[in-house]
Automatic annotation (TrEMBL):
Gamma-L-glutamyl-L-cysteine binds at R86, R87, D88, R89, D415, R419. Residues 16-146 form the DinB-like domain. Fe cation binds at H52, H138, H142. Belongs to the EgtB family. Its cofactor is Fe(2+). It comes from Paractinoplanes toevensis. The keyword GTP-binding does not apply. This is Hercynine oxygenase. Catalyzes the oxidative sulfurization of hercynine (N-alpha,N-alpha,N-alpha-trimethyl-L-histidine) into hercynyl-gamma-L-glutamyl-L-cysteine sulfoxide, a step in the biosynthesis pathway of ergothioneine.
């Protein structure tokens, strides 16, 4: 056994443990009634996410990598995300909370045994522990989804966290990114998913991009200026949706005599003017940008602003460099239950001087979700390829609810342009 194999096994065990601790926290914070209840037709009951996390782990690590006998082949169909829509999942004969916990624990015990014996090279699935990394990210992604379900849940607060750090200084304005090629995507990041691959050169014309995400105060100015009532700022589809859905402000915002307030995990407070706005859909983001005389950045613009180092011409793993995210770099991992005010992470700035690209709020881009040149589906088409096309917009950078294992400079998320139960915000760009 090599030193590298030992290192990978330790890393996987640590990361699997961190993911499970978070899943446990999110599913033990509420009672069984809240676990099986549907808090929104947009979301699964929490108990479905819990057993689905275990089922994916069983499929990929126990059966595929480990070559072991199935634990519960009979439940595969119930927890196949492509078989049942979220709104229908409460109607299924799901495992109850006690059974779901027992099942995920049984699977995890087997996986830790597989981990002790599995090779860490030889096939693409096990190379540098890829399949384990995929499952770690899958569980953390469901944890973020469960956190969004908590945000939609009615009732007394059950989650708490300390406030994010205060800003070290003001961050305003925009930076000019010069025209030129940069390397987008990755062919070397060991746990990067198929849609982040391969690395390829992209020419990006000169553009300006905001140094910080759009804040609550900036967004409130758009509302106060009548932005929701003026079809000039909205795309045709966006205006139709704004009217049909009755949009007047971000999700979870309410107005009283003293101004706008927002509700975070059961607690309602006046909005913090300096915090990045969150819970806006793509149509709202694009309308704001048009009102401001700007536009959303393309995905390539966002990634160049985040990764391109003009001193070396190289693309970094993260805006601050190649080191994994530390607490000083970005607001990640549910450490705080809200975005941090603009300027709170000076150590996370990109070489071009752009702040808070990673963490705080997912950032909508103008781009549809497509495969990069040379894209190869891996390990299965359902991971990304079936979502390619004009229906989905790409989001970048992760939110306060994203774990550090499930985000990087190349990481791509996607969703429908009407969705805003996710922790989504944006920043603006414009042509130079
Ligand atoms: Fe899933």
């Amino acid at each position: 056994m090599t030193h590298e194999t030992d290192r990978l096994r330790d890393l996987v065990a640590t990361e699997l443990g961190r993911a499970r601790d978070r899943t446990t926290l999110l599913t033990e914070a509420v009672d069984d009634g809240d676990l099986v209840r549907q808090h929104s037709p947009l979301m699964s009951p929490l108990v479905w996410d819990l057993a689905h996390v275990g089922n994916q782990e069983e499929l990929w690590l126990v059966r595929d990598v480990g070559g072991r006998e199935p634990v519960r082949r009979d439940i595969d169909e119930l927890y196949d995300a492509f078989k049942h829509s979220r709104r229908d999942r409460t109607q299924l004969p799901l495992l109850d909370p006690r059974e779901a916990r027992k099942y995920t624990a049984t699977v995890r015990d087997k996986v830790l045994d597989v981990l002790d014996h599995a090779p860490m090279e030889g096939t693409p699935l096990v190379e540098r522990a890829f399949a384990f990394g995929m499952i770690v990210q899958h569980e953390q992604q469901h944890d973020e989804t469960m956190l969004a379900t908590h945000q939609l849940r009615a009732g007394a607060p059950v989650l708490s966290a300390p406030p994010p750090p205060v800003p070290a200084g003001k961050v305003t304005g925009e930076v000019l990114v010069p025209a030129g090629e940069f390397t987008m995507g990755t062919s070397t990041e060991p746990w990067a998913l198929d849609n982040e691959r391969p690395a390829h050169r992209v020419f990006v014309p000169a553009f300006h991009i905001d140094r910080a995400p759009i804040t609550n105060a900036e967004y409130a100015a758009f509302i106060d200026a009548g932005g929701y009532d003026d079809p000039r700022w909205w795309t045709t589809a966006g205006w139709d949706h704004r009217q049909a859905a009755g949009l007047v402000a971000p999700l979870h915002w309410t107005r009283d005599v003293s101004g706008w307030a927002s509700t975070h995990f059961g607690r309602t407070n006046p909005i913090n003017p300096d915090e990045p706005v969150v819970h806006v859909c793509w149509y709202e983001a694009a309308a704001y940008a048009a009102w401001a005389g700007k536009r959303l950045p393309t995905e390539a613009e966002w990634e160049k602003a985040a990764r391109w180092d003009p001193a070396t011409g190289r693309s970094l793993r993260y805006p601050w460099g190649d080191d994994p995210p530390g607490v000083e770099h970005a607001n990640l991992g549910q450490r705080h239950l809200q975005p941090a005010p603009v300027g709170a992470y000076p150590a996370g700035v990109s070489p071009l001087g752009v702040h808070q690209l990673i963490g705080d709020a997912w950032e909508w881009t103008s781009s549809d979700f497509h495969g990069y040149p040379g894209f190869t589906p891996f390990p299965y088409r359902e991971y990304s390829e079936v979502f390619f096309g004009p229906d989905y917009k790409v989001l970048r950078g992760g939110s306060f609810g994203t774990d550090r294992s499930a985000v990087r400079g190349t990481f791509r998320n996607w969703d429908y342009p009407i969705r805003r139960q996710i922790f989504s915000g944006f920043r603006c760009a414009r042509d130079a």
